[in-house]
Amino acid sequence: MNYKSKKPTNNSATSLISALPAGQSSAPGFALKTSFLVVVAAAASVGFSSPARAGQPLSNQPNVESWAPGRILVVPRAGLPEKELAKILGVHGGKGRKIGQSSMYIVDLPKGASEKDVADKLSHHPHLKLAEIDRRVAGTFVPNDPYTGSEYHLTKIGAPAAWDTTQGAGITIAILDSGVDGTHPDLVAQMVPGYNFYDNNTNTSDVNGHGTAVAGAAAASSNNGIGVAGVAGQAKIMPVRIADANAYAYYSTIAQGLTWAADNGARVANISYSGVAGSASIQSAAQYMKNKGGLVVVSAGNNGINENITPTTTMIPVSATDANDAMASWSSYGSFVALSAPGTYIWTTSRGGAYQQWQGTSFSSPITAGVVALTMAANPALTSTQVESMLYSTAVDLGTPGRDIYFGYGRVNAAGAVQAAVAAKPVADTQAPTVAISAPLANATVSGLVAVNVNAADNVGVARVELKVNGSTVAVDSSAPFAFSWDSTGAANGMASVVAVAYDAAGNFTSSTPVSVNISNSVVIVPKDTTPPVVAITNPVAGRVSGNVSISVNASDNSGAAGITQSLYIDGTLKATGTGATLGYSWNTRKLASGTHTIQAVAKDAAGNTSTATVKVNN
User: Fold this and answer.
1) Beta partners for 496?
2) Which of 134, 177, 244, 458 does the annotation list as catalytic?
3) Which of 232, 393, 495, 507 is in Cβ range 3.0-4.6 Å of 370 for a Cys bridge?
4) How far apart are CA 473 and CA 91, in angstroms?
């Protein structure tokens, strides 16, 4: 069916735009990292009502750092036992709270502790992948003058041509924002259940207006004869509230939202917030979603400067262009930018059933997220990496030929990306990854916790790396840099063989050259052992899972971990065995029937004492 002639009209928007405050400007370099203005149809103003608490350096002044009091974020190396993580955090009085099925923890610090000092110290800890303060971030939108126009951006990106093939049906876009007005007539049909990580409840109504506008740009209903059309007008909208009434969010709420969205069926996530592309924690959460077949799109920022953020493959940062394909004067830029998209005078939905125009990379981002949804829907067999590649290869190259700091690979092209997706034919990936252990060195003497570093690469992407000691898988890591903490007390003293096995998404795998190390730990002698070992399943936790799930089991015993034998069962079927303190397994849930599944770990010590641990999950 051809939808070109059925684009919704803007009649209701025209009457509402007259209520916008007059005389506002979109001056170049309008700073939004810690302050912003918002324009609403009723001309109400949004104030700042988040006074700083003791020890909380929150400010509404530009260029003043703001972060959450009393908490930081950390990601331990794969395989680090939870009791060891607790010890590392305990030195600083911290207690960790795991974020869903990911490997990230929110760490609560004692009153009076310096978040920056603790995060800095832990960021250099040999058994942690990352540690950073829980920064506060603001939405990336700017005020604009009343303007008479239409949805020029849809024609500019070739959306009508793409709609002849798909409008995004079957794809869910998670909108990580201030909530979404799910009763809006142009959004109500698109809504699926979400979650509120700011208040920890299921109320995802919009407390600011920013989220409703962002959602409409991505996926307002198309071909319904009212209001506006989103880029992917048949995609579903998953509201994930991460922000307060002033539209401020935190790294922690964003990381929680991404993890939850990935585990609850979202294929695309949009984050229209400044500075998130530079967060190691959010990069980790974005990679978690990418590993499950999704893509994360983020705004570049509205500071009109080079943000000097290191490029990453975990997400797609988007800068803003205008109706003439020129860069918006206020758009941030830098080598981290992957794509550009229209961001000036974007007609979209507003709270209370209204419509209005917005500006900012807050809208370049969901416009791109809508194109991602169209591309995925056009060919559901494509992997996230393939979709990403098509977005880049079909983008309209602007500025310097090739990728540049202003437009990335170019302005997003819905028609081109969808056409490439339809034309794509399955190509078997037969090239296996490369993998090598860079630490420890061969014949090194080790004891206690051992940091194991692995270098792995693939022509498409490394899906996971498994660490094996004497043939037993002790840990699984699914995101680069691939880094492990191996508890050597789980193996007998003497020479041990350490091997890393890298897998790609197609199932190709390569084993590294074995590294032999000499284990030298003190020996625990127990006269008569009647105490059973302690065993725990540290991942996953009870809840929903999807895609490839990394299962981690920890065990300890009064006579030492070297004598422990572990067995892992899923729905009563033996899946893995191993010896020592840790056991890892990669569980593919994609072909399982939906429902409840039981994961059980059994640990037996050398004296025959046994204990079990069980976790129930849903897929």
Assistant:
1) 517
2) 177
3) 232
4) 30
Task: Identify the H or E element spanning 136.
Answer: strand 128-138
Q: Are strands 543-544 and 610-618 parallel, antiparallel or unpaired?
A: parallel
- My answer on whether 291 and 147 are in the same domain is yes
Which residue of the set 127, 184, 210, 597 is catalytic?
A: 210
Tokens of 415: 């028609």
Q: What's the total number of domains in the chain?
A: 4
- In the structure encoding, which two tokens stand for residue 48, read together? 């700042």
Question: Are 500 and 564 part of one and the same domain?
Answer: no
CATH code, domain carrying 393: 3.40.50.200
214 closest CA partner among 157, 269, 281, 261: 269
Q: Does the annotation mark 597 as catalytic?
A: no
Question: Is 210 annotated as catalytic?
Answer: yes
Considering the candidates 252, 272, 362, 556, report the single residue annotated as catalytic: 362
What was the pLDDT predicted at 43? 28
User: At which residue do the structure tokens 């079990």 appear?
Assistant: 612
| 575-608 tens-digit pLDDT | 999 999 999 999 999 888 889 999 999 999 999 9
For 84-128, what is each residue's pLDDT tens digit? 999 999 999 999 999 999 999 999 999 999 999 999 999 999 999
Which phi and psi (to 5°) does residue 358 adopt? -130, 165
Let me know if residue 254 belongs to a domain.
Answer: yes
Q: Specify whether 96 is located in the same domain as 174.
A: no
pLDDT tens, 414-444? 999 999 999 998 788 899 999 999 999 999 9
pLDDT tens per residue, range 458-474: 998 899 999 999 999 99
Mean pLDDT to the nearest integer, 201-230: 94
Confidence of residue 40 (pLDDT cuts 50, 70, 90): very low
Specify whether 362 is catalytic: yes
pTM: 0.85
Q: Which residues pair with residue 43 across a beta bridge?
A: none
CATH number of 575's domain: 2.60.40.10
Does 248 lie in the same domain as 112? no
